[in-house]
Amino acid sequence: MAKKVKKAEKKTAGKAKKYVYNFGGGKADGKSDMKNLLGGKGANLAEMSNIGIPVPAGFTITTEMCTVYYKMNRNYPKELNAQIKTSMTHIEKVMGAKFGDEDNPLLVSVRSGARISMPGMMDTVLNLGLNDKTVLGLAAQSGNDRFAWDAYRRFVQMYGDVVLDLKPRTKTDIDPFEEIMDEVKKEAGVKSDVELEVDDLKELVKRFKAAIKERKGIDFPEDPWKQLWGAIEAVFGSWNADRAIKYRNINKIPHDWGTAVNVQSMVYGNMGDDSGTGVAFTRNPATGERKFYGEYLINAQGEDVVAGIRTPQPINTSTKSSKEQKTLEEIMPKPYKTLEAIYKKLEKHYTDMQDIEFTIQKGKLWMLQTRTGKRTAAAAIKIACDMVNEKLIDEKTAVLRIGADQLDQLLHPMFDPKAEKEVIAKGLPASPGAATGQAVFHADDAESLAAEGKKVILVRIETSPEDIGGMHAAQGILTAKGGMTSHAAVVARGMGKCCVAGCGAIDISYKDKQFKVGKTAVKEGDWISLDGSSGEVMKGLVPTIKPELSGNFGTVMKWADKYRTLGVRTNADTPKDSQVARDFGAEGIGLCRTEHMFFEGDRIKAVREMILADNLEGRRKALAKLLPMQKGDFIGIFKAMKGLPVTIRLLDPPLHEFVPHEEAQQQEMADEMGVSLEKIKQKINSLHEFNPMLGHRGCRLGIIYPEITEMQARAIMEAACELKKQGVDVKPEIMVPLVGEVKELQNQTDIIRRVAEETIKKAKTKVKYMVGTMIEIPRAALTADKIAEVAEFFSFGTNDLTQMTMGLSRDDSGKFLPAYVDMGILKADPFQVLDQTGVGQLVEIATKKGRQTRKDLKVGICGEHGGEPSSVEFCHRVGLNYVSCSPYRVPIARLAAAQAVLKSKK
Amino acid sequence: MAKKVKKAEKKTAGKAKKYVYNFGGGKADGKSDMKNLLGGKGANLAEMSNIGIPVPAGFTITTEMCTVYYKMNRNYPKELNAQIKTSMTHIEKVMGAKFGDEDNPLLVSVRSGARISMPGMMDTVLNLGLNDKTVLGLAAQSGNDRFAWDAYRRFVQMYGDVVLDLKPRTKTDIDPFEEIMDEVKKEAGVKSDVELEVDDLKELVKRFKAAIKERKGIDFPEDPWKQLWGAIEAVFGSWNADRAIKYRNINKIPHDWGTAVNVQSMVYGNMGDDSGTGVAFTRNPATGERKFYGEYLINAQGEDVVAGIRTPQPINTSTKSSKEQKTLEEIMPKPYKTLEAIYKKLEKHYTDMQDIEFTIQKGKLWMLQTRTGKRTAAAAIKIACDMVNEKLIDEKTAVLRIGADQLDQLLHPMFDPKAEKEVIAKGLPASPGAATGQAVFHADDAESLAAEGKKVILVRIETSPEDIGGMHAAQGILTAKGGMTSHAAVVARGMGKCCVAGCGAIDISYKDKQFKVGKTAVKEGDWISLDGSSGEVMKGLVPTIKPELSGNFGTVMKWADKYRTLGVRTNADTPKDSQVARDFGAEGIGLCRTEHMFFEGDRIKAVREMILADNLEGRRKALAKLLPMQKGDFIGIFKAMKGLPVTIRLLDPPLHEFVPHEEAQQQEMADEMGVSLEKIKQKINSLHEFNPMLGHRGCRLGIIYPEITEMQARAIMEAACELKKQGVDVKPEIMVPLVGEVKELQNQTDIIRRVAEETIKKAKTKVKYMVGTMIEIPRAALTADKIAEVAEFFSFGTNDLTQMTMGLSRDDSGKFLPAYVDMGILKADPFQVLDQTGVGQLVEIATKKGRQTRKDLKVGICGEHGGEPSSVEFCHRVGLNYVSCSPYRVPIARLAAAQAVLKSKK
Fold first, then answer.
1. Which of B3, B741, B844 to substitute to test the interface with A, most A CBs within 10 Å?
2. pLDDT of B473 above 60
């Protein structure tokens, strides 16, 4: 930023830089593609002027000025003053009024306008230019004393609040103007503002000014120019108000963009019943239906619509919901006709659905704003498809019009947007979707109640493999501990089930079968609702709706597939998940985690037997029990993915994840295994690790216990051979996890190939298979040229790669990561959005080095980032072959991959 | 390796490659600088031949042949046979005898010879060429029937053992030849071998052959050529015997070097009293004294000296330790004179102390081997200095002659090499040195017993801050749990105190005040001894000696300083350590860990108070108590390092390291703090982390709790200002730990600079200070260009950088890392020897990127690698400014740094 500004200043030194852009009167200095400089509002006001749409004249002070203002320690370059003066003259000329003139005063609004709309975040001043003298001119000119004095008292109040900073900042603060208003209304014996007489309004102005004097020790500025500079400063200042900074952090808007300031002549919707103001969408923003849709208020200023003080009326029949409602079309047919012509012109001009604001002053329609309208995912899809049919846009543009991340809305149940919610706590958004049900605290209870047809939410401090059945039976899972990679989170995502994890605020008592949040207690059987996308925990039953996938959805996906070059696979561990993903368009499995298969039913027993074994023989015996089960899993998955590649990762987690950590369960395990509790405890103790993330896991297990690798390779290859003989096309890709050094991979590859060749020979068939590795340790990325000598494919495990590259434990980062994002130290949670600067650098290095050694190396990504649009775009850019993500994110990845291609061609 | 061999094979395909090199008869095909190809022994035999020293003629089969042999699946290229035949003819010509001739048989020895000596690891066959016919020729020729038959029976036995693999592999196996020997001795009614008559020897040969037939089903090969090929195969085979592989792993010798085979004509030291054999050093290998030093046996074969069956005699008076001993000089003055001339010639020729083997056959002296003699650190230093004085070598060569790692011997107490040791367990060599004392199990007991003047060893499962006093009082520390970075290890290294950590084999009972290892119990008061350099735990009192530093040591260090360009600093946290390091030549402190100051006495109370505080005010109050204590620490350290830079790292460990984890101590803490145990537990629980290594630590603490950074910055700068005013020159360098993103550093730097400027202003003085960062997270290395925009210096924390780059938890890697090194997956423990390929790559990247941004960026390393010679060499090579290591390793680093310069110029 600093550099840019310096450059700007230098330029300025040479010749006066243009900081102010005019619009109105059928032409403008700017146009719509100058959003970065003029802000969204300013650019569109200019554009509307250019295409002959009636816009009150005005000028825009650039966003660049905002940056310079802060760089100059809240001062302005000299030339600004002259430029503003010139532009004001331009407005005066177009509007036929004069700023500060006692007879024919020009009044202006002063509004912010950033590149991207930040609704409600920044300040606005209306009716600027009024003072004790010009108010009289306005009264005379409008022939309406009350209107003029009402405008004046509004201005003084707004100026006091915004520019002079009297707006209360906390709920307990008192707004001095509200107090005065209440007094005056009481004195006048009226209940509402509109009943106040002219004299009451004059009294208000007087007392408002006195309040300013009292609180701020200054007189209310009568000089319109002084007023203007104050307002400009307030708008620039509001860019760095706390709430604006927070909003930008949350919405990932760079802090150095700055805001523009729009100074525009006022038009009034409150000049009587032939006046009004409204907002509208050129199509329905909820459904996408091609119908003009909006609301208006008669005899009102624009802010009244937004403020919601009066209930607005529908502008036309398609917006109307009851017979009693009067539409703008009915009441003011002429301006409505003009509005219709304008919205059609705008939509055609912008070739997108517009969100517009208008004011009718004494029968004349003025446009105050147009911008691309926000819409739901469903609407986005419908509008995109319709506009292609209307030949307004082409397919490529249509693909770019849909927010990939938004698709999530369509794929999971969601809460009815109209429903009321009482949020009692917030945890980590561990697995998306919405769920509602009765709280239960034990997996068994969840299963039995679900069997009775009840909807339940399983609430646990943490979940463990024993809880799988209950998790499956529940609508959603809520845990007090554990992060985004905790057992609960990972299993829930695999199941496509809603989960809120690590909700530290809830205090669970298993004994009392309840949890407490502050003073609120939730007992077994009480209804709660979970939002797995926001992490919110709500009391009571919040109704959910399940969006349906339309034919348009399929059309958009087809277009996306036409343009994307990046493959999209899925992370799936079961035949069911595989099928779901395939239905969503997955082109293979990019990550099948074999350890999840170890948790179910009898298997965990065999796994524990293996762990407990003191020697090779004992381990082999236990593994022999697992072999047929694993083989069965693979048969199911291979069948579901018939003809598509399936990447299977060998056992990854440290062995202590398979043993119980509570004494009662340890005793159970001891009884089952027929050994002493002491022995169990001793073993579990010996497995303890200080930093399990960096511990004895991944290929390190297979190297120390080659018999595990052997068993898994055999299960995979026996399954593959069996199906191959049945005529099913299978493409196994065996993936070795956590490799940091090529010799580790060589060791494991030797075992896998030996077992595979043995198995194929024995089965007397032919199966093509590949052996490759995860790249998830920085050292693997740095030595990828060596690793590619052995690996036939790479798959970036960006979850672990992020943890190690950034030195961040995902499960522990909750203590500081949210603050980091708030403070702007990190732009986003790197576990959600790939850190392209650091982790991405390693992805690029590894891809390049790997392909130096093996030109046709297949490279994919199987971390959670594989379903996050900006990360998918990155993967496309650095030349990966595919991304792999959870089944429900497959459509998102497909769309994002297409958008990546189209954006790069732009 | 594979590539190399292919190349070798290709060459071979063109023209016959030379695999066999002759020597003897005053000339040779090879020379001393061909060690890689001919092995050490072969190259030196060739060299001796070339300079006219009498060497029995022979030939060397190259190490390359060994590699080809394994590549060809234990087969030989065709041309080898012809080359060997030709070379055998060469020997026959020089020695005037014929291989396999019945009248004048040539006998040969077949020995291994790798690049680097691997004593006792590989196989040797002597007297080869004997059979039922040639033995008669030998008898006739030597005029000594007994000698000939003794040679024959030895040969059969050796051949059976080595080539036919009858040597017992385990202790319980029985050597068939030993059994037969015992029988025959019994039958002959004699007790020792030398008493056996010719007929007995003949009987032995017969029975030995029968045993071979019985065990192996084959006849003993009478054909000398068959014998020769068998022996060659045995030598090559022994290269990949388990013990040889293990030896190479331990000594970091690459497995693809291969061994050469030396076939040399036999000479006999056992042909009567005018014959003998011996080994000698050209100077004293223990002290370095310039005196010829060696032992011999009269009428014996070479192996007898090594085997230690008979006690050898001194070769001269300077070797003699008693009057009774007869020296070679006295008994055979003529050969001794020749030997003297030869050793002088050799030392002059090689310009280094030589370790030689010789045989005198009937008065004629033959040299069998010369090689650079192994020596103690003390000897290495004395010899280097003496040789410079003698003008034999220059200073640079002298500096290169001393093993930097060996210096450790001189700097810590060590066990008397002559003492007997009963090793009962082995742990991690956590802090070097030797310690002996009575076992105690509680820190309090250690303190009180030490106060009584007793020497104690503190034995704990783990240590914690409460144990500091006891650790200080103890001679050494032994823990059952925890790794090289455990509390015990880190604190002990800081104290320069011997520590063996993570000794899992010992089972400690605090209740019974004892530990058990298998069946051995060690009770309180029992003597034990610890070797902190090997990790050995010994029963009883093993006497230690404290080596003295000689003037020569100073001379060598002076030379080292003259040539090195890399700075050497120290890691020190106390004035005492700082002083020790300064005395050892440290040029500043590269890492002063402030958290160690937090553990002592009252401080830990204040730290815990801070942790327990629920709000900023509470934390500030507690920190205010710590401020004067920290300031005091810094004053002490600054004073000790007067004029030298002191790099102080801000608080690094996660807060849970400061709270007790056992309930009794938690109760104590609760009582002290006046809060409930419940509250303490809750707090400790909330601090728990799954992967503390990647958790809330380093600058992440200072960002969330800026008041900690403020306090520390203030303590540092107040100390600096105070001393500056007293005229003490201080150079504080404030180091922010665990930075991964430049904005983190910016955040902390802002705080530090603000506090520093305030403090300096208040003190009305001037202090120059720097603010920099540790580079210990891969992302920091990858974004070093950005980080250098803020950091004034970098210091690589290679401990953490290794953990994250390799995804290896140092404390947990014990489960697989030793196996990795054994299996050759890793060349060395990357926590001891810097992983140059992976971690080193990041060090290079970061240094380069950092200096792109800031040309004069000061870059150092403060991980434990800073004191490891090969890592120091790496740091020099990639252009770091300094290394920093523990005080006792400073001289090692100085020497290694000088050697790095000298090696790079070679």
1. B741
2. yes
